[in-house]
Amino acid sequence: MTTLREENLAVLEGYFAAMAEGPAAAMPFYSTDAVLVVPGTHPAAGTWNGHEGIAGFGGTMARLTDRTFRLSPIDLLASDDHVVTYANASATVNGRELAWLRVIVSVVRDGALAQLRFFESDQVAVNELLNSAVND
Length: 136
Prior knowledge:
Elements: H1 4-19, H2 23-26, E1 30-38, E2 46-49, H3 50-64, E3 70-78, E4 82-93, E5 96-109, E6 112-120, H4 123-135
Parallel strand pairs: 1-6
Antiparallel strand pairs: 1-2, 3-4, 4-5, 5-6
């Protein structure tokens, strides 16, 4: 018998496997009322709600980074209540490349990602990079 922790970890692992196929393949891993909270002062920052919001966030990031944004998990952690992704992130905007660490703390509800919150290792640098996409 699997534990809730193992089930939650399987959701996260399945999500990243689906993301390798593309954002549309990963959408079923989000609850229909998912809430994504993205910190910062850049155009992709804010609270994104539901599948439409999640898709909007993805489209915004793709546009800002000319589809160069990458997220590569280092560690996936799970408990009965939360899953955590510790990952390398990178993007190039106007010829300027940035690499940073991102932590994503998520709540899994009924086998789907229901709440997600990003934490960037260098929020100022991320803000500057993504803002340069609209300011240059």
